[in-house]
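Record format v2
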Amino acid sequence: MLEVRGVTRRFGEFIALQNATLSVAQGEFVAIVGASGCGKTTLLRLIAGLDQDYAGEITLRGARIEGTSLERGIVFQEPRLLPWLTLWDNIAIALDNAPLSASAKKNAITAQIALVGLTGFEKSYPAALSGGMAQRAAIARALVGHPSILLLDEPLGALDAITRMRLQEELLRIWRHEGVSMILVTHDVEEAVFLSQKIVVMDSHPGQVTASVAIDLPLPRERSSAEFCALKGEIFAALHDNAAAKPPEIEYLI
Amino acid sequence: MRGNIKAFFRERRYIGAILPLSILGLWQASASFGWIEPVFLPAPIKVAEAFWYMLTKQDLPRDVWASLFIIGQAFIYGTLLGVGLGFAAGLSRPVELFFGGTINTLRHIPSVAWIPLIVVWLGLGAPAKIVVLAKSIFIPVFLNTLQAIRGIDQNFIELAQALKLNKRQLIRRVILPAIVPVVMVTLRYSAGLAWALVVIAEGISGLEGLGFLIFRAQNLLMTDQLLVCMALIGLIGYILDRLLYLAQRRLLRWQRGFGGSYA
């Protein structure tokens, strides 16, 4: 459904992403892992349409991506809720331009808030929400317009370990409930193995895709099972190969 | 009421009353013991009597109204123009370039220095003062509105892009609420400045208003009336700021709870 073919993004002389290729099938959950600076966020922003200055081709259902679209929902690293809007309005804003009746919008928002478990907090302002609650609200905002693909840019990276594990389970539940394709950018290998059906491994200098590993464990996954750990080991090995294939970086300070 | 009195003592709010009461006591003592000539500092009761006299026998309400009329109009025009033009400049670089330099230069000419010229043009009445005051409110409001828009987190603009908001929705949902904190502080600050300027403008030119009264009282050595004017100017300034503060708190109720539980 989503095809990224030979995409290169330069910032002046710096090559943030070189010849990246990957595909996401309808309803598939794909994780992108890699060290910081490998261009995974750059790639996600290109898919989101927030950045359009690239060489190569990105298509969704055969149509080239031009700018942002409500068909592609995005959750950022931080919740990015508007502090002057209530939780309800922060989610409703995603439907400002949806061709729905007022009552249909109301139903969609109510259902989405229930799905992320925030019923009862509709009138709260973001300042009164915990980090985990705020990120759930951000997920609800991205999903309320029923996009065909959801882009997640390290959405759980800033949360504590326990909240993160709970939200991973919720993300899985939401994915199964909504049947939406998802691309999750993360540097947490366990998170990637726990959630996704396919893991794309990236490397830096220049940013590039180096491996693609299918995760065919049945859901829900047991984090301590032997198969789970073996797959984690495989991803770590792929990341390590990336690091080992390069000469150590030496900087000269003059 | 009883709760208020309790809080007055339990939270030690009476501490704030010590200084004004002491000053009042000292004032009364200086009158009672004849420390200071009454022509320089009349007794508190004489000032209260002067207030009553001005209220009933003279035209004090008309003069207060004249001053309020000027600052009210100036505040509306200055604010509308400042926010409007600040907005236009904030959303359009050419507009900013067109006005920015001129306004940044003009703001170094103090408002008081404008009064003589504007009075020559518009006469001694209210219009000249309204123009000068509106200008003194317009400049900080314009500059701070523009700066507040420039200071909006780029991430919010990107979010608006991702949500496909059009320009009107971007303004209503993101830009307007984002600049309210800065604009409200500027309004309170410039309203205070403008209120002081009313007094000066009325003192320099004109035949009515609190500023006229206070300078007339000085010329006639009517220190009691002079003190009445000072007290009224202070009180009205306080009330104006309080009203704006309440408006600010209402508009910014989403800010309450900051420093809360955001991880």
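The CA atoms of residues 163 and 191 of chain B lie 38 Å apart.
Confidence is low (pLDDT under 50) at residues 257-262 of chain B.
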